[in-house]
């Protein structure tokens, strides 16, 4: 194998390969997948000189540790964390040169949930339907990382960015999601619609890449019975029988049979990716554009 590779020493709780995803295949039952915090993934790619569609690592909560087989430029962003090379602190949010054989350790998130690691040249695993992303729902893409995994890398094509640190938004202390009501808001009582857009929910610890689950007031239906399965989109807010809204994220199913009370603006979903359990959530109704 080429020395353009890294070995996974510590895989962490859930570390996956992600890029910009595979949109356009919902008719085949394939979610779009891709980095949940897309701006953070794009930024770390830019810092190491990668194209915006290069594959990066997305870690969850407790980071990971890697050992490069050759000298390598890396950048870590998204959820803030401690980054070390052979135990010595190095910059977060800036390009760092890591020598072959040293241990790059991406520590637990200090705040937020998901940290992104860009490796110069990008991670070169076999693309499926045009993407290298791991999709936890369908099983497409490379499996989540395990200790001992070796990830091949592409060639470094351009010099990395010359910055001391790149500013990034802090994970949300309160998650405010702009939502367009419908298409099934008529399945809920007026009181439920008022509660949905005026009460505060909390991020549930059951949240994952498929959806951000919430805790809080149960939304009462105005209609009983079953809804025929219909197409689901990124950001759809589905309400299961228990009445607690679920915001669909990148690995969401492409169809579903529970009513969708509204759809969250795509620009708000990056913050949802970084909202830790217990974060207050408010849904703010906006007009259709």
Question: How would you characterize the overall build of this protein?
Answer:
The chain has 3 helices and 20 strands. The chain has helices at 38-48, 190-198, 269-273, and strands at residues 5-10, 16-18, 56-60, 64-68, 72-78, 81-85, 88-90, 96-98, 104-109, 114-119, 150-152, 175-181, 201-203, 211-215, 230-231, 236-238, 246-248, 255-256, 260-264, 280-285. Strand 6 (81-85) and strand 7 (88-90) form a beta hairpin.
Helix content: under 10%
Uncertain stretches: none
Structural class: mainly beta
Q: In DSSP terms, counting alpha (H) and pi (I) runs of 4 or more, how many helices? A: 3
Share of β-strand residues:
25-35%
The N- and C-terminal alpha carbons lie at a distance of 51 Å
Radius of gyration: 20 Å
Number of strands: 20
Which outline best applies?
elongated
Oligomer: single chain
Largest sheet: 7 strands, mixed, barrel
Any chance you could write out the topology, listing elements then pairs?
Blueprint: E1 5-10, E2 16-18, H1 38-48, E3 56-60, E4 64-68, E5 72-78, E6 81-85, E7 88-90, E8 96-98, E9 104-109, E10 114-119, E11 150-152, E12 175-181, H2 190-198, E13 201-203, E14 211-215, E15 230-231, E16 236-238, E17 246-248, E18 255-256, E19 260-264, H3 269-273, E20 280-285
Parallel strand pairs: 12-20
Antiparallel strand pairs: 1-4, 1-11, 2-3, 3-10, 4-9, 5-8, 5-10, 6-7, 6-9, 12-19, 13-14, 13-20, 14-17, 15-18, 16-17, 16-19
Keyphrases for this structure?
single chain, 289 residues, mainly beta, seven-stranded mixed beta barrel, six-stranded antiparallel beta sheet, 3 helices, 9% helix
